[in-house]
Structure prediction request, 509 residues.
Amino acid sequence: MTRRSTRRLAALVVTLLLAAPAAALAAEGQVTIGAHITIAPRWLDPGETESAITPFIVLYAIHDALVKPMPAGQLTPCLAESWSASPDGLTYDFTLRAAKFHNGEPVTAEDVKFSFERYRGGAAALLKSKVKEVKALDARHVRFVLKEPWPDFMTFYGTTATGSGWIVPRKYVEKVGDDGFKKAPIGAGPYRVLSFNPGVELVLEAFDGYWRKAPAVKRVVMRNIPDETTRAAALKSGDVDLGYIFTGPVAEDLRRTPGLRIASARSNAVFYLDFLEQWDPKSPWADRRVRLAASTAVDRKAINDAEFLGFAGLTHNVVPRHMEFALPIDPPAFDPRRAKQLLVEAGYPNGFDGGDLSPNPPYFSQGEAVIGNLGAIGIRLRLRTMERAAWLTAWREKKLRGVLLAAQGAGGNAATRIEGVATKNGLYAYGVLPEVEDLFQRQARELDRKKREELLHQIQRILADRVVFAPIWENAAITGIGPRVEEAAATLVTSYPYTAPFEELRIKR
Prediction:
């Protein structure tokens, strides 16, 4: 070998040695998440947040709120460094911290006022009916003035019950418009949008100017993989580092796969049968005995064991037990014989055609299990599958029929949960019991905590006794975690099933 060749070889070796750490750093600087749903453009705008937990999968990354659920507690000051309520309960004052949006503009009181006034998502009508005005006192101080004392203001405004407290930049939104904002959103969260290909993936880049701390992971890719087996295969191959929502044999297989692990925690979500036709007096579902028969025919324990590896909790209340003002209600015992007798008493000895059963996507196998249980007593249902965003839209717009295997996962308390599904302004309420509406309005004005709890317990008892819904389980979302991930941040926020706070996401060094 000539001296010249030796020098070339040495230079090549040095180049390779220098390039290797750079390549490794590039690989370690990215986490890819396999999402169980197709991310809808509207979820990138907190102003349209539904009374569901799904949008917060991206909101926690891109945006920030004055107050939001964090590891420190359900009402943790974030963009607001502090907040206080007046003794009469009519005003709430927030002091903003020195925080910036992704475009470098400061977060101001005018942005807070603008974000609330443009909010049109879940519980918007209720919030607007309670808030008299929002005052931007100066750049860092904002005041909410209520029409009357409302003990649930902070629960609706500062938790995942709504997206009303998540702040967007007024000047930018006014410049690009609502549609432009969905295509290229600017927030104040730990990550900014690098690119968004609807139906394919969302690419996020760390925002080093985030007030809390710079994210440890420089890039996060959220890839849309609705099919569970495909998502699991991607996790096994290393194509994704995290995967949301695994069930049944797929989850069990991941748990047994060397190098992978699963994480699960009881979330705010309750899955329940919503009998949409019960408000039509001509429908079989209008008979309480029929609805009770359906509830009694569901083998909750078997579904839990088979689909959730036993992590879920059995219930007969749409309000999960851990929520404030929840009334623990046990489900009826699984008893197909009793269920058939109830159908006979209701005049349906041979059963009936119950229409479609539309499960909350992607929980289709659970829907099939419920169809099997109800079919065994003569209630015949057909599985109708949809994509998550389309399903939520159809549910909200009252276009679905038959029976839903519905799910409510937004945070808050018993009042926020009841508002969404059982009151006249509820985003997902297809009908309302007058006594429930009356009790709900009364509890909203009640300042005595004990009396308020009694009113909310009455509502929950009525909903259970009338079998307006047939709650089945308190969800325990299972996340799959790959070998590169040190901290998935999937269980840091109490009762929240996805990554949050995103700035806590870490990969192994």
